Task: inverse folding
């Protein structure tokens, strides 16, 4: 039975990720309470997993405000379900990432909820997975921003077998991307490419990238397909 997959979206895991964001922001619980107008006891309850199945919407909104103020990027999917890249910090705000985050936080509807439930079922069924919400147009039109993808994880020693496939890749700094693994280079590194030659991102080819994990895309869902 695969407990680790279920635990990613458990109240305990959500509470741990909320605490991690606060730690990255270098704030005490009292400072969060004072600065963002939330009762201290309520916030403590969130970090001590005293809530039902999912963090309340107010907790997500406060996490967003806290991270906006401290140049931390994260997504709602990561906070609630452990989907996608880890939070990142930068000296300057990235407007594109902030737009993605804003949409991720506020764009909640039944259709997206259904997709996420299906994705969590996929995670629960298989032993070891990677999941991602597509954030750029590098692999358009096959994969569009806002769509969800998942696959079975291949660890570092077996990534070479995925050359030529569209994969979710986790690079050495923890970032997760959707790219085609083009070829293996020296020192067990890889060339990653975008299949959309007109992509709006700066680097459509990444050279000599160290990959920690990769997963060929076997599950793909978008909104407005029913």
Result:
């Amino acid at each position: 039975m695969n407990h680790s997959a279920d635990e990613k979206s458990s109240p305990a895991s959500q509470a741990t990720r909320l605490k991690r964001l606060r730690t990255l922001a270098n704030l005490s619980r009292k400072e969060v309470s004072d600065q963002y107008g939330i009762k201290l006891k309520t916030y403590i309850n969130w970090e001590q997993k005293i809530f039902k199945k999912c963090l309340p919407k107010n907790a997500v909104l406060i996490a967003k405000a806290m991270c906006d103020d401290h140049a931390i990027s994260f997504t709602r999917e990561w906070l609630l379900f452990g989907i996608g890249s880890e939070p990142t910090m930068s000296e300057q705000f990235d407007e594109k990432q902030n737009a993605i985050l804003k949409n991720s936080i506020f764009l909640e509807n039944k259709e997206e909820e259904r997709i996420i439930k299906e994705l969590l079922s996929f995670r629960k069924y298989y032993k070891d997975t990677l999941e991602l919400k597509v954030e750029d147009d590098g692999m358009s039109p096959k994969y569009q921003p806002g769509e969800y993808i998942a696959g079975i994880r291949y660890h570092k020693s077996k990534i070479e077998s995925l050359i030529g496939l569209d994969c979710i890749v986790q690079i050495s700094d923890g970032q997760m991307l959707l790219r085609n693994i083009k070829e293996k280079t020296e020192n067990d590194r890889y060339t990653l490419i975008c299949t959309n030659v007109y992509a709006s991102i700066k680097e459509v080819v990444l050279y000599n990238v160290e990959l920690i994990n990769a997963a060929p895309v076997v599950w793909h869902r978008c909104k407005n397909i029913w």
User: Anything to note?
Assistant: The chain is about 35% helix and 20% strand. The chain has two domains: 3-108, 128-221.
